[in-house]
Amino acid sequence: MYVAVKGGERAIDNAHRLLAEERRGDPAVPELTLEQIDQQLAHAVDRVMTEGSLYDRRLAALAVKQARGDLVEAIFLLRAYRTTLPRFGAALPIDTARMAPRRRISATFKDLPGGQILGPTFDYTHRLLDFDLAEGREPAPAAEVAAEPRPLPRVVDLLDREGLIEPEVAASDEPAGDLTRRPLTLPETRDVRLQGLARGDEGFLLALGYSTQRGYGRNHPFAGEIRLGEVAVEFMPEELGFAIEIAEITVTECQMVNQFKGSAEAPPQFTRGYGLAFGHCERKAMAMALVDRALRAKELGEEATTPAQDEEFVLYHADNVEAQGFVQHLKLPHYVDFQSELVMVRGLRKAFAAANNAGDTPAEAAE
Amino acid sequence: MTTADDGRLAGYNFAYLDEQTKRMIRRAVLKAVAIPGHQVPFGSREMPLPYGWGTGGIQVTASILGPRDVLKVIDQGADDTTNAVSIRRFFALTAGVATTEKTTEATIVQTRHRVPETRLTERQILVYQVPIPEPLRWLEPSEVETRKMHALAEYGVMHVRLYEDIAQHGRIAQTYDYPVEVAGRYLMRPSPVPKFDNPKLDNCPALQLFGAGREKRIYAVPPYTRVKSLDFDDHPFSVEGWDRACGLCGSTESYLDEMIVDDEGRRLFVCSDTDYCGQRQAAGHRGPANAPKEAAE
User: Fold this and answer.
1) What sign has the CA pseudo-torsion B168, B170, B174, B179?
2) I need a labelling partner for A116 at 20 to 30 A (CA). Which of A205, B41, B125, B278 fits?
3) CA angle at B247 for the pair B246 and B248, rounded to the nearest 5°
């Protein structure tokens, strides 16, 4: 008698044990510690925190380790943990103007109060594989900073004083929406759109942002400012009546400044695209800002015809945890539906052959 | 993973979801039952299983599950397919409920792609895992548009689609995910069950709940509700059939899976519903590939 080969509990258990063994790799090689991942694969941790929507370096490092460096899998792990956490309330909005930036650049002004600060950047490195690094040699010490970092005004605020750029005001006093607690509704408000973009896949947003630069929804962007640094997170307990600082987090902020020729209601002025990411995720923050601005097309009276300007398209497809699950669900058995298709195709072929023999067309023959 | 005294996973609520979330989902379920076939948006949570692998069904099951429930989980009609095993274990671990492979013993059956062959009863709930809840999705990709079409019961486009099949192939070529009209109003996607199963949805004594986690929708067919597969007077709805019986139990009424059994490409046809097939064999029914032991040896 024939017995169908199907996965049982033992097969699953064994697969997981094999995975655990392969994750560890050669036992002769020292095991990675979470501290090593946090310190030396910091950008991986940053990305996992950003798209995982949870600021916790240690948990993100654990997720990276458990996922064997597969960052989308790590994001999934962190999200699945985050969803179980109780919520105490919402923090006050962080104020990036109070940040003492470790990096701050503006492409719109040659110089500005506080100056350009390159900080720790890959920019201007020549991408030559560094064989010293392979040898594990210690790097030369970083240059000393002349003065302690201090809060610097935001470039867009300087433009704002002159009325050259649209003011950034909250659309309503409502608390910010939360996509992780309620389904998407369309059209969606900008706060929720920004949340969707912040959680969205970096690669997807990068490609969409890039497409706007190549003419699919061009919006004439300038990198008004990119800043990296630490900001305080404050929480206002109702019974206390004043804000208390509960944490300090590292964020990357990108303010894109976009040309706008004005409309019947609005004078010609610059408009904004906004990007924010946990840790140091500059590419993500910039791509996010481009797409945020593209998604404002309708609000600004622009023609919206391209993918990056289509809120439904962008928000429904940006989430890599959703996307990876659905793409990979094709691995699950589909043999029942496939059987239906087999029966149908065989039937159609039979009708086709019969029709051809009778010198008839298949549709006519079947009727 | 550590487990508590009762064998449940420590540190998590009964059936994983917190009670607030379950209440939110139950509200969506109640609304769905009140408007048969209508897709109710809900605040789908991120689950520890991937989207597209049953997160909607799992959330619905988690929110209706009680400690005395008996749970059956099938995928492709089978209890022993990997994802069914995985989901059953998830609930055994997080809820500590009894599980079964017998359709008649279960109070809740969670399924992907099949409806059990054994007729369900009033004391049972069938929970479907749904990948794409929107029946009009392949005809209109925009959710904004399809919601309008449902509001206006503007379903002509689906009839045109089925008519085009007839014009081109002489028959409706939709084999699974075959669209149905629920209680004379909403067009509904029966999740990708083969159209063979569509008649089982009609006037079913059990409550049928549909959960789509990634798309964040829940819909329902209350017990004894009319579920009509779309068709035309001159092209009535019909289901697929096989000109052979199950190789193991000899049933000629069940949905058969086709398996390739050797390098020559020889085929064996067996019931996709493993419990149904097993019950029949236990009752002494035999198919052509399953002759009594003495004869086979």
Assistant:
1) positive
2) A205
3) 90
Report ipTM (2 d.p.): 0.88
Q: Which of B51, B143, B175 has its CB closest to that of A326?
A: B51
Q: CA–CA separation, B186 vs B225, rounded Å?
A: 12
Neighbours of A97 (CB within 10 A): 13
Tell me how far apart the alpha carbons of residues A359 and A352 are, in angstroms, rounded to a whole number.
Answer: 10
Burial B249-286 (b: 16+ CB within 10 A, else e): bbbeebbbbebeeeeeeeebbbbbbbbbbbbbbeeebb
- Spatial strand order of the sheet with B180-182 comes to B186-188, B180-182, B227-229
The residue behind tokens 């629920």 is: B182
Catalytically active residues of B are 37, 246, 249, 271, 277
Q: To the nearest whole angstrom, how far is the Cα of B141 from the nearest Cα of chain A?
A: 9
Alpha-carbon gap, residue A258 to A254, rounded angstroms: 13
Using a 10 angstrom Cβ sphere, with 0-12 exposed, 13-18 middle and 19 or more buried, the burial of residue B182 is: buried
Q: Which of A315, A277, A252 is nearest to A105 (CA)?
A: A252
Contacts of A96 (CB under 8 A, 6+ apart): A154, A227, A231, A251, A253, A276
CA atoms within 13 A on the CB side of B280: 23
Report yes or no: A6 at the B interface, CB cutoff 8 Å: yes
Give B76 to chain A, closest Cα distance, Å.
6
User: What does the pLDDT profile of chain B (297 residues) look like in tens digits?
Assistant: 667 667 788 888 999 999 999 999 999 999 999 999 999 999 999 999 999 999 999 999 999 999 999 999 999 999 999 999 999 999 999 999 999 999 999 999 999 999 999 999 999 999 999 999 999 999 999 999 999 999 999 999 999 999 999 999 999 999 999 999 999 999 999 999 999 999 999 999 999 999 999 999 999 999 999 999 999 999 999 998 899 999 999 999 999 999 998 999 899 999 999 999 999 999 999 999 987 655 444
